[in-house]
Design goal:
This protein is an alpha+beta fold. It has helices at about 1-20, 35, 40-45, 55-65, 75-85; strands spanning about 25-30, 70, 90, 95-105, 110-115, 120-130. The chain contains five helices and six strands; from the N terminus they run αβαααβαββββ. Strand 4 (about 95-105) and strand 5 form a beta hairpin. The protein starts with a helix and ends with a strand.
Length: about 130
């Protein structure tokens, strides 16, 4: 009987110390389910009739921000498949190319930034915040 109490106490302590992760798991951006699961959002982001400051594009970008892990992006084809090219802003630092997709609505923004060389993505940074 003591063994059962010890096991229950250990499990309770493990849950208490470790906590429960209630945040839904994001799926990798290069996962084959992304185009199906986020079909509507991708359609909206690729729309050339909406601006990057539209509410519809901001909401679509927010859903991707919440559900997709862009740290898995390895090539620009993935970016084109998800975002299209209409809202892409390209730049260059001294050591890498940068592609930024930024969506604004009222005083909020979501920015997807990808760094790399040519068509290869080496890192990403996804941020959401309030314009000051």
């Amino acid at each position: 009987m003591r063994l059962i109490y010890s096991v229950v106490a250990a499990l309770t302590l493990a849950v208490f110390v470790g906590g429960c992760n209630t945040e839904p798991k994001k799926i990798p951006c290069n996962d084959v389910d992304v185009p199906k699961r986020f079909e509507r959002e991708i359609y909206v982001l690729k729309s050339s009739t909406l601006t990057s400051e539209s509410e519809a594009k901001f909401k679509a970008a927010r859903r991707l921000y919440q559900g997709v892990d862009f740290s898995f992006a390895r090539d620009t084809k993935t970016l084109v498949d998800i975002f299209g090219t209409a809202n892409a802003h390209k730049g260059r630092t001294e050591d890498s190319d940068i592609i930024i997709f930024q969506y604004n609505w009222q005083k909020e923004y979501i920015r997807f930034a990808f760094m790399g060389s040519g068509t290869v993505i080496t890192s990403s940074e996804v941020t959401m915040g309030v314009v000051k």
